[in-house]
Design brief:
- It is a single chain.
- The protein has about 160 residues and is mostly helical.
- It has five helices and no strands.
Length: about 160
């Protein structure tokens, strides 16, 4: 059946393309955070191990929400490493960084996702897509707050 939600096909496609980048960024940051959770060492081990677990669990929920919004707009969500690697703006980490470098790297990832969200807002505004705007606002809130809290650990 045709999607008839008051947003034309061209706008739905453009918004979905932006959301696909957001999905790839979110999944990439999820993997990176999970990796750091497993591999962090040093005097901050216990607190960072716990913190990173909370963060990757939150990102796992976000991945599902973003993918489901793409589907609600009538498009297919990317769902493979290959697709995510092409779309993401977040760089993979080489090796296992030291704990403070993990923190700095995660700050960059959260800030990158906040920027990705902002890049989608104009298309959503044009289409009066308040549902996607709400998702983007929620994601920016989480990522900006998380980046601030992580930055505070290495100030």
């Amino acid at each position: 059946m045709q999607v008839n939600i008051g947003i034309n096909e061209e706008q739905r496609k453009a918004i979905s393309e932006g959301l696909a980048v957001l999905l790839a960024d979110t999944y990439t940051l999820y993997l990176k955070t999970h990796n750091y959770h497993w591999n962090v060492t040093g005097p901050m081990f216990q607190s960072l191990h716990t913190l990173f677990e909370q963060q990757y669990q939150e990102l796992a929920v976000a991945v599902d929400d973003i993918a489901e919004r793409i589907r609600a707009l009538g498009e297919f969500a990317p769902g493979s490493y290959k697709e995510f690697a092409k779309l993401t703006t977040i760089k993979e980490a080489d090796g296992i960084p030291k704990a403070e470098d993990m923190i700095r790297d995660l700050v960059k990832g959260h800030e990158a996702i906040a920027k990705t969200c902002r890049n989608i807002v104009p298309e959503c505004d044009k289409a009066s897509d308040e549902v996607t705007l709400d998702i983007l606002t929620q994601r920016m809130t989480v990522h900006e707050k998380t980046a601030w809290m992580l930055r505070s650990l290495v100030a």
